[in-house]
UniProtKB/TrEMBL annotation, chain A:
Entry similarity comment: Belongs to the heme-copper respiratory oxidase family.
Membrane topology: Multi-pass membrane protein
Pathway membership: Energy metabolism; oxidative phosphorylation
Keyword Iron found: yes
Subcellular location: Cell membrane; Membrane
GO biological process, alphabetically ordered: electron transport coupled proton transport; oxidative phosphorylation; respiratory electron transport chain
SUPFAM superfamilies attached to this UniProt entry: Cytochrome c oxidase subunit I-like
Residue stretches spanning the membrane: 37-58, 78-99, 120-140, 160-188, 200-227, 247-271, 283-305, 311-334, 355-377, 389-413, 428-448, 468-492
Protein name per its UniProtKB record: Cytochrome c oxidase subunit 1
Gene of this entry: ctaD
Main subcellular location: membrane
UniProtKB/TrEMBL annotation, chain B:
Named cofactor requirement(s): Cu cation
Gene that encodes it: coxB
PANTHER family noted in UniProt: CYTOCHROME C OXIDASE SUBUNIT 2, CYTOCHROME C OXIDASE, SUBUNIT II
Entry protein name: Cytochrome c oxidase subunit 2
Family annotation (InterPro entries): CcO_II, CcO_II-like_C, Copper_CuA, Cupredoxin, Cyt_c-like_dom, Cyt_c-like_dom_sf, Cyt_c_oxidase_su2, Cyt_c_oxidase_su2_TM_dom
GO molecular function, one term: cytochrome-c oxidase activity
Any one GO BP annotation for this protein: ATP synthesis coupled electron transport
Source organism phylogeny: Bacteria, Pseudomonadati, Pseudomonadota, Gammaproteobacteria, Oceanospirillales
Length: 533, 381
């Protein structure tokens, strides 16, 4: 009860409410407002990147060039990847963290609220700059989201410089966001909430934040080396000047592989919040979940060259990276087993957030299996840079990360808006997405094994059938996201009033405050609820 | 409304599938290939696939059993257990053992793939934007291999043939039952040479020489593609291997060398302007049109136009220089080793007399072949 009193008390002061007009959003230091900004921005980018994906799938519907030129096709694959990774998935997780971390640990706000404002407002400018390259002479970056040198240096379009600065800005934003989350979790926990009582979403985000701080400077370093090669006559990656194109890949993937886990660890956290709620049973193996997450994070620094099995690294190197990569299956397996054990002998119901969470467990695991297959170096020679890889990483990123974000959005929307979701529309969105995602990405395993390389605008006739299927699936999946948009808007505008504890089995401090959460929560520290003591 | 959408999508999908299945077969798996290594790779792939299927059956089995039986609507009560160290240890150890089981055959296969010693034939493979150059080291023979699918098929103005996008003008001819070592490098960006039937995929990287090897068991045609994004025409640089018996290979080598001499000799006779223009157009479409476009208009900001350009309508020496030696720091390659003297003369003549460029002058193959004489750098003047 103590909790409720303090929040009501805070609400009495008029000057504590949000400012009026556009100024509220431009100058806000409120974690809820900033969380909202991040989430809407991410949704906008999700639709932008999605339109590019649909353009790619439309061109690949049939063999032959129908809609776009090969040069533009490459710009689409590049921009789709960059926008989805840096614009959709990462900001969505930061948005969720902004909204939920302070409420989960009983803090009044993020530890560094002004920096919080800045780390968001950098993003629209970074992406405006990156997307503007589409309209420049020579076109947008066309060298893939992995931008391997020398294709991205000596042979790049002039717009590559804008791309480099945009990446720098995104990196600054991510690092500041990560510092804020670490400072908040380490310093602002309610008394009595020891680290091993921290909600798992906060744990996974804490570990993710350390990964971000470790690898974003590496990304900044590699793009700066590109900048030097392009404009200042250095030869880091130019073989003709004594440089080394393979060095680029080592540096890039030293960032790139931890980046992959940056996009999945917070998803693990969300799923670990949702499954116990709808199974009405505490998470199985809390401690082992924490240790597994930490092990995955540490291993992520030791496996980068598994993206480079075909560049000709020596046998000993191949073996090391193969074994290290296979090891990741162990902690990842532990997490999946724990989720299943949480469901076992629970009392389950299947509201929209739970449906997305269950789909996550199944489809992410399928992505994990193809990941294990890809880890086997001698077989990877056949899989590498084919649609099998495309299928693999889309399985872990779309029904993996994206489904987890949607599950989280549906789970916490009542807390954000004060309204329950229309379950019928939620289930419609789920089933359309679930069917669409599988029709899109499952056939890609087949065309990859049959021999279709990735990033090609046109293909041989034996790949035609499954490409057509995948394109149909992509349009089903893409269009069904309009239902998601509809659901979010409908939930903001009205609906059944949500209780403070919006879901029957929900546990945690965020469910102790009213729905919608008042503008300021926990101005004084609450008492930990019985279940968490 | 929901039902109507489902039915429409369902029938649409059915129709599309029906129409598509008339076209080709539904390949769903890796090829076992035609070499010892490719078969080991295939076996490894299938073994790991079935292990994954078995694990999936167990994990998803328990999950779906719980979803079915432990649901609130069936009156299930939540049990209050949430920790068990023994179980946690068991499901950490068992996957670890399975992984060790996978690592053993994987290591054996990898060690085999890395042993390129005692090769009987060395072929150097160089990636170019967007073609491959094959050099039979020790046999004084090298040539380029370009996509031969006509543009009309790609732009849907003609019916696509069986080997659409997987056909080239000159096959890489290799003998069977011979250990062949490939030495891979690149002239510009990173490419990756991949032939699924041999289970060989290796990156061709500028400044590096990578090794791979194969022993082909059966004569036949094996097709592959570039696997590393290498720019605009990455999807249009296929690989075609023609594996022949050892005797046929020797015969082919002799014929190919004789052909090469005939082409060199052709440069010495006098060519008419029409002849040059005719051959020039063919060469242009094969080697230049990808960037400068068939209309010579280029792509603003990326590839300069030739139509009305200062070089293609100015001093002939400067024009010859840029075609022969390329322009460093740009995508413009040096074509002196890629085309024969008569092809070079023809394409330069064509560029100076097509699309409204009308200098009326012909560049003779003899003139070019003097510039191609051994001492490099002569073309500067």
């Amino acid at each position: 009860m103590n909790t409720l009193d303090t929040t009501l008390h805070a609400g009495e002061h008029g000057h504590h409410g949000p400012a009026k007009g556009i100024g509220r959003w431009l100058f806000t230091t409120n974690h809820k407002d900033i969380g909202t900004l991040y989430l809407w921005f991410s949704l906008l980018m999700f639709f932008t990147g999605g339109c590019m994906a649909l353009m790619i799938r439309a061109e690949l519907f049939q063999p032959g060039l129908q809609l776009v030129e090969p040069g533009f096709f490459n710009q689409m694959t590049t921009m789709h990847g960059l926008i989805m990774v840096f614009g959709a998935v990462m900001p969505a997780f930061v948005g969720l963290a902004n909204w939920m971390v302070p409420m989960m640990i009983g803090a009044p706000d993020m530890a560094l609220p002004r920096m919080n404002n800045w780390s968001f407002w950098i993003l629209p400018f970074a992406f405006a700059m990156m997307i503007s390259t589409l309209f420049m002479d020579g076109g947008a970056p066309n060298f893939g989201w992995t931008f391997y040198a020398p294709l991205s240096t000596t042979y790049a379009p002039p717009s590559v410089t804008y791309f480099i600065f945009a990446i720098h800005m995104m990196g600054i934003s991510s690092i500041m966001g990560a510092i804020n989350i670490i400072a908040t979790i380490l310093n602002l926990r309610v008394p009595g909430m020891t680290m091993m009582k921290l909600p798992l979403f906060c744990w996974t985000w804490l570990i993710t934040a350390f990964l971000l701080i470790a690898v974003m400077p590496v990304l900044a370093g590699v793009v700066t080396m590109m900048l030097m090669d392009i404009h200042f006559g250095t030869s880091f990656f130019n073989a003709a000047g004594g440089g080394d194109p393979v060095l680029f890949q080592h540096v890039f993937w030293f960032f790139g592989h931890p980046e992959v886990y940056i996009m999945i660890l917070p998803a693990f956290g969300i799923i670990s919040q949702i499954i116990p709620t709808f199974a009405r049973k505490r998470l199985f193996g809390y401690a082992s979940m924490v240790y597994a997450t930490a092990s995955i994070a540490i291993l992520s620094f030791l496996v980068w060259a598994h993206h480079m099995f075909t560049v000709g690294i020596p046998l000993a190197g191949e073996l090391f990276f193969m074994f290290a990569t296979m090891l990741i299956a162990v902690p990842t397996g532990v997490k999946v087993f724990n989720w299943v054990a949480t469901m076992f002998r629970g009392s389950m119901t299947f509201e929209t957030p739970m449906l997305f969470a269950l789909a996550f467990v199944v489809l992410f695991t399928i992505g994990g299996f193809s990941g294990l297959m890809l880890a086997i170096a001698p077989v990877d020679f056949q899989y590498h840079d084919t649609y099998f890889v495309v299928a693999h990483f889309h399985y872990v990123l779309v029904p993996g990360a994206v489904f987890a974000i949607m599950a989280g959005a549906y789970y916490w929307l009542p807390k954000w808006t004060g309204h329950m979701l229309d379950e019928r529309m939620g289930k419609l969105h789920f089933w359309l997405s679930f069917i669409g995602v599988n029709i899109t990405f499952f056939p890609m395993h087949f065309i990859g094994l049959a021999g279709m390389p990735r990033r090609i605008p046109d293909y041989a006739l034996q790949f035609a059938d499954f490409n057509m299927v995948a394109s149909i699936g992509a349009f089903i999946f893409g269009l069904s996201q309009l239902v998601f948009l509809w659901n979010v808007i409908a939930c903001v505008r009205g609906g059944e009033k949500a209780a403070a504890r919006s879901w029957e089995g929900a546990e945690g401090l965020e469910w102790e405050v009213p729905s919608p959460a008042p503008y300021h929560t926990f101005a004084t520290p609450p008492k930990l609820p019985e279940s968490q003591r | 409304m929901v039902r109507i959408t489902t039915i429409t999508i369902g029938s649409g999908l059915g129709l599309a599938l029906f129409a598509a299945s008339a076209q080709a077969e539904w390949t769903v798996n890796l090829t076992p290939g035609v070499t010892d290594v490719s078969r080991s790779v295939f076996d490894l792939h299938m073994t790991i696939f079935w292990i994954c299927v078995a694990i999936a059956l167990v994990v998803f089995g328990v999950m779906f059993w719980s979803i079915f039986h432990h649901r609130k609507s069936r009156g299930a009560e939540a049990h209050n257990f949430h920790e068990n160290t023994v179980v946690e240890v068991i499901w950490t150890i068992i996957p670890l053992l399975i992984l060790v089981g996978m690592a053993v055959p994987a290591t054996a296969t990898l060690v085999k793939m890395y042993d390129s010693s005692e090769a009987e034939l060395d072929v150097q493979i160089t990636g170019f934007q967007w073609k491959w150059r094959y050099d039979y080291l020790d046999h004084n023979l090298d040539f380029f291999s370009n996509l031969s699918t006509p543009r009309e098929q790609i732009s849907n103005e003609a019916d696509k043939q069986e080997h659409y996008l997987l056909e080239v003008d000159r096959h890489l001819v290799l003998p069977v039952d011979t250990k062949i070592r490939f030495l891979l490098t690149s002239n510009d960006v990173i490419h990756s040479w991949w032939v699924p039937a041999l289970a060989v995929k290796k990156d061709a990287i500028p400044g590096f020489i990578n090794e791979a090897w194969t022993v082909i068991d059966e004569p036949g045609i094996y097709r592959g593609q570039c696997a590393e994004l290498c720019g605009q025409d990455h999807g249009f640089m296929p690989i075609v291997i023609e594996a022949v018996s050892r005797d046929d290979f020797q015969q082919w080598l002799a014929d190919a060398r004789a052909d090469k001499q005939r082409v060199t000799a052709a440069a010495e006779r006098t060519w008419t302007l029409d002849e040059l223009m005719q051959q020039g157009e063919q060469v242009y479409l094969r080697a230049c049109a990808a960037c400068h476009l068939p209309t010579g208009e280029g792509v603003p900001g990326a590839f300069p136009a030739l139509k009305g350009s200062a070089i293609a309508t100015g001093e002939v020496a400067a024009h010859i220089d840029i075609v022969l030696n390329g322009k460093s720091g740009t995508a413009m390659q040096a074509f002196r080793d890629q085309l024969s003297a008569s092809e070079l003369a023809a394409v330069i003549t064509y560029e100076r007399n097509a699309w409204g460029n009308s200098l009326g002058e012909a560049v003779s193959p003899a003139q070019i072949s003097r510039l191609l004489e051994p001492t490099t750098g002569e073309a500067e003047q």
